Amino acid sequence: MKLRIIGAILFLGILICSFLLGEKVFALVMTIMAILGLKELIDIKYKKVKITYIKVISYLFLAIITSSTIYLDLSFERIVIMLILAYIIPIVFYNDKNKYSIVDACYFLGIVIFLSLSFRVIIEFRMIDIAKCIYIFIISSLTDTYAYIGGLLIGRHYFTDASPNKTIEGSIIGSFMGAIGGTLFYLAVIGDMSTFITVLVSFGLTIISQIGDLVFSNIKRYFGKKDFSNIIPGHGGILDRFDSAIFIALGMALIIRLF
Q1: Rounded to two decimals, what is the model's pTM?
Q2: What confidence tens digit (pLDDT) does each residue in 84-94 have?
Q3: Rounded CA separation 146/151 (Å)
Q4: Which residues neighbour 259 within 8 Å (Cβ) at sequence distance 6 or greater?
């Protein structure tokens, strides 16, 4: 528990400092987080496989797409087209499914686009309104924390094999506390939606938060891993911490256009 607390303090310290030091610093920190997250998804499947060229262009394109909002002025569509060609063309030259195949190409393409878009959206929220970006992390942290505490205290009914430690009781408490905390912050600091809509959106995002957690838990379970890495003491990897925030950011980017 002590190690977990230290890890949480370090992680929150980096996150808070990146918020306070401005858009460019925040974008740089999020890009680094995205790169570390990509490394985790590559290592979880290709730890012992040497595909140096593919790995290099993956990190390169992810950094370009993620940071292009603030550091570069590039067409996202053109970047994706180049990315597709960069992954598909090598299939012809490798011509060996044990080294590199269409399955590998789709895996790399998927994780690079998914992570780069997710962290790019978080950066864009920071640029548009820092309060809304903070709101994302408030929903994520409150939902995760209280789902964990609720599960420990009164959790009895497990509802998915994807994450055996998740309970129905913990999930309900996590959503309840996440929605309350998120709503209070949004109404007090942002206040551009009615109370009813804010409650509805906040509650919906807590559900999306837990779905994100379960999606990444499924990925770990598929590859037989407990954590994506051990980079954060007591917490695991970058994606073990950003799993919920990623989905909340994507969900909020869709939902916010409706109101």
Answers
A1: 0.89
A2: 999 999 888 87
A3: 8
A4: 193, 197, 201
